[in-house]
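Sample entry (59 residues):
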Amino acid sequence: MSTTDETRARSCVSCGINISGTNAAAFKCPDCGVQIFRCAKCRKQSNLYECPDCGFTGP
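Predicted structure, serialized as C-alpha cells:
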C-alpha cells in the first residue's frame, strides 16, 4: 500500500479528517469498488463525497 493509499484509508473522503478511532463508516464505491471512509459528522449532514479513484459522487 502506498503512502497516498494509507492516508486516504484513514481520512474522511468528504472533509479529510483523520477517522482513526472514530465512528466512521466504511463502504465500497458503487462504481469501482474502492474502499471509502466517511466520518459520522459528514454522514449525519449528508455531505457529498467523491470517489478518489473514479470520481463517482454521492450524498
